[in-house]
Amino acid sequence: MNLDWLIIGGGIHGVHIAARLIGEADIAPEQLRIVDPGERLLARWRTCTTTTGMDFLRSASVHHLDLDPWSLKRFAGKGKKRRPRVFTPPYDRPALALFNSHCDHVVETFGLSDLHIRDRAMACTVDCDGVGVRLLSGREISAQNLVLAIGASEQPEWPDWAPQGEARVHHVFDPGCSGWPSQSETVAVVGGGISAGQVALRLLDEGHQVHLVSRHAMRQHQFDSEPGWLGPKYMTKFSRERDLDRRRALINEARHRGSVPPEVWRVLRSAISRDMLRWHECEVQGLDVRDDILKLQLSNDEVLDVERVLLATGFSSHRPGGAMIDALIDSASLACARCGYPIVDSALRWHPRIHVSGPLAELELGPVSRNIAGARRAGDRLVNAVLSERSD
Ligand SMILES: Cc1cc2nc3c(=O)[nH]c(=O)nc-3n(C[C@H](O)[C@H](O)[C@H](O)COP(=O)(O)OP(=O)(O)OC[C@H]3O[C@@H](n4cnc5c(N)ncnc54)[C@H](O)[C@@H]3O)c2cc1C
Predict the structure, then answer these.
(1) CA–CA–CA angle 55, 57, 58 (5° rounding)
(2) Cβ–ligand 1 contact at 312 (below 6 Å)
(3) Which domain holds residue 135?
(4) What pLDDT, on a 0 to 100 scale, did the predictor assign at position 336?
């Protein structure tokens, strides 16, 4: 198979970029494929968001996967035709169910399911004729252009004290996590951000006894970075910064890691004040695994006896892509900053034939790069690059 475009990763970023290339850059669908191991496109997004029990997205209604920013609003219908409670203030954030139906609509509009190759990319090579990708199935695909849209969702962050492989300790974002309790249990949720809060609230709703262990006080922020990062207010200074260590520092400073929006904090605070949710602001120092119980040792000398530990500690911040990307960097001499992340041009090109999106693009797109807004920014850059190359 020799394609014009191959996208590795069929998450939020891969799907949006495919829609933009087909819908705005006139790439023929038969010349584009998306490789992703999920049984359907967006499978990781759906599993991660369902697990948290979230009802609404954290981002505004203009951040979605279609081309026109108002598409999601239109899709929700107008006046009496609009279903109730599909958006919530502030910023008209969409209900997860609405957002997901709209994703299905985008996938259908651009016929993306037919372009999905259910497989995993294992190795990439590049030369002046194009890119070659070997899949887990042994199949080889070549393409003129590659987009790496591999996200971070395959690398959940495991604290050192948490044993992997123990049947009662799970990361809520582990691919294939089967650790959700089916009957009433005492559960410790570890983590201090929105997902930890939402997981704790979902467990409470389902009748469990819940401890929430966070190593810092609740940090309240509506978004995971200030809206000024979506436009010139902060991005002008970021783009002018030539020192990539400094750019990395700006990203780290800008990101409100481990923060919760006020509406989630209100529900958590109410559950804590009514003693329904036990809140512990301290570090976990260790876990003693016994046959009948798990003993979680906290830095305030308390020991929690629980039946299950659910980690909601987010994703590891190291460069995603593992051995496949390491080997590609070596073989194609791709440039990386000291933080290990790609140095790309304004068209998100890491190499004349390799574009990146999501975390891999963050030294160019800034703190919103991983989010839905970042997928839209990446779409802008790629479409502009294709159109301007064509007009040259
Ligand atoms: C619970 C939750 C809620 C969120 N809510 C919001 C929100 O409200 N608003 C917002 O803007 N952002 C939100 N985000 C952040 C972000 O938008 C999502 O994480 C989004 O899913 C990232 O999309 P992605 O395509 O980069 O990555 P992923 O969803 O990780 O998709 C990447 C895909 O690439 C695949 N892949 C990886 N390696 C390979 C390979 N070698 N071969 C083939 N396929 C591969 C993976 O299996 C995966 O399917 C949320 C994140 C989470 C976890």
Answers:
(1) 125
(2) no
(3) 2-154+317-391
(4) 98
